[in-house]
Amino acid sequence: MGSESREGNAPKVVLVTGASRFFGGTVVARLAQDPGIERILAVDTMTPSRELQRRMGRAEFVRADIRNPLIRKVIDGGEVDTVVHTALLTRPPAGGGRAVMKDHNVLGAMQLFAVCQKVSSVRRVVLRSSSAVYGCSAKDPAKFSEEMSARTPPRGGFARDLIDIEGYVRGLARRRPDIAASILRFAPIVGPRLAARGVQYLRSPVTPTVFGRDARMQLLHEEDAVAALTHAARRTVGGTYNIAGDGALSLSQAVRRAGRIELPIPFTVFRTAGRLLMGPVMREFSAEQLDYFHFGCGLDTTRMRTELGFVPRWTTVQAFDDFIGGAALRPVVDPAWIDAAEHKLLGLLGAGTGAHQ
Description:
The protein has 16 helices and 14 strands. The chain is of the alpha/beta class. It is globular, with a radius of gyration of 21 Å.
């Protein structure tokens, strides 16, 4: 894939937003290792940590706000040809409400892509998006393809922001057909370095789930998310792509693999009393997360392989297991013991191993 990605207009000057955070900073660090890229501009309003700056190597950090028109000076003056936009808030920041989050996400993207449209040197734009744009409902298909949209309008602010931002990217591609605009819709991302973000749900010995539902989840390893962004930054293929690991994992399997005990409760209780039961853990859940644990979301990744030419290294199950390993959770119940008991029970019932998925 390396030689293939070098064909055509290989990137020379790349600008990455959100450089002080995990995705932006790690993408900068990976691109800095590519000798074919002459210059990398790492942009954010906050200075990256010392460790992240060390990993960024030769990249140049620029303290700038993409909502400020001065971002044009950075892009135009630097003759930037490739912009990778990762600076997205998934939830309102501490001390700021939904309005602050929307201002950062939507107005920031609007300003950034307006500048990309005006600057002639820009030839490639990559957006970090999410499968949250598909929403989660009982009406959903088994797998969403990129042409599909949410059957029920998403409730969460993050998903609504992304729908607007994707619209700006498509508008940019229409007005500047010479720009290859790629939208990467990531499945929920997990991994050892992101363990602190999502693992609280599984920290409690008893994990509440939705009674009568067993959400099927597709996940993406954090390493594959970074690899997909850097891969797209090097290619001239525009379009929208679902990015997810192979296979799926039901929520009940995930709870078992984490060594927790499942407590199925009605969704109304899950959404209200569940938050009280789990204390600060579920109180921080976004509307997208609550819906995801209720319904799940399947993605068709054919286009990712055939058109983008990207293949994740980690399957959904491998990504989840690495996430749990990185979180250093102590199992309440040994998952191996549950597996052995389940196989024994199936044997007593006379069921073949094919009955156990």
